[in-house]
Amino acid sequence: MVIEQLFVSFIAATAFSIMFNAPRKSLWQCGTVGMLSWLVYVILERTFSVDIIIATFVASIVVGILSQILAKWFRTPIIIFNLAGIIPLVPGGMSYDAMRFFVVNDYDAAIATGSTVAMISGAIALGLIVSEIINQMIRNMNWRKYQSEYDRRGVSRETN
Asked: Which of 51, 85, 135, 136 could cysteine-pair with 33, CB 3.0–4.6 Å?
């Protein structure tokens, strides 16, 4: 069952990457990021019984970190991998259910489902932001190390 879900999430992420005109050389990586995001989500939700909002948040942090690494490695924009990675996490079916509950006048279920959809969407956005903050902190630490060793002209401070 999980193998089938991983395969489908790989295909979905790759298909959305094609729709968003991602470069051909990065389609496998886009599919892999989407598949790994779904794997993290499934492991957290089913194995460790974590709430779906927290599982989505952690999976989107993983998407952001993987996207940062792959964007640097393959010299492509990070948004290509971010979009492909969050596609399996987007609560589309739950959004449909929320709208259906509104249409059939079941407002209690509609509000509950709609608020869950909003929190999951916020968790996706917040996870990508947190991964970007982590990346910026790592960059600043490396820059400070470089900056303390060299002056503005790139000359080592020990030789001056």
From this structure: 85
d(Cα 66, Cα 31) in Å, to the nearest integer? 12
Give the total residue count for the chain: 160
Q: How far apart are CA 56 and CA 124, in angstroms?
A: 6
Q: How far apart are CA 41 and CA 56, in angstroms?
A: 6
CA distances from 109 to 52, 96, 116, 117, 126 (A): 17, 12, 11, 12, 25
Q: Which residues pair with 156 in a beta bridge?
A: 150
- Of residues 147 and 130, more confidently modeled: 130
**Residue 150 bridge partners (DSSP):** 156
Structure tokens at 29: 């990586």
76-106 burial, b for 16+ CB within 10 Å, e for fewer? bebebbbbbbbbbbbbeeebebbeebeeeee
Distance CA 110, CA 64 (A): 31
The single-letter code of the amino acid at 122 is G
**DSSP letters for 118-138:** HHHHHHHHHHHHHHHHHHHHH
Residues 102, 103, 109, 110, Cα dihedral to 10°: -30
CB 52 within 8 A of CB 38: no
| Res. 153: pLDDT tops 80 | no
Cα(4)–Cα(40) distance, rounded to whole angstroms?
15
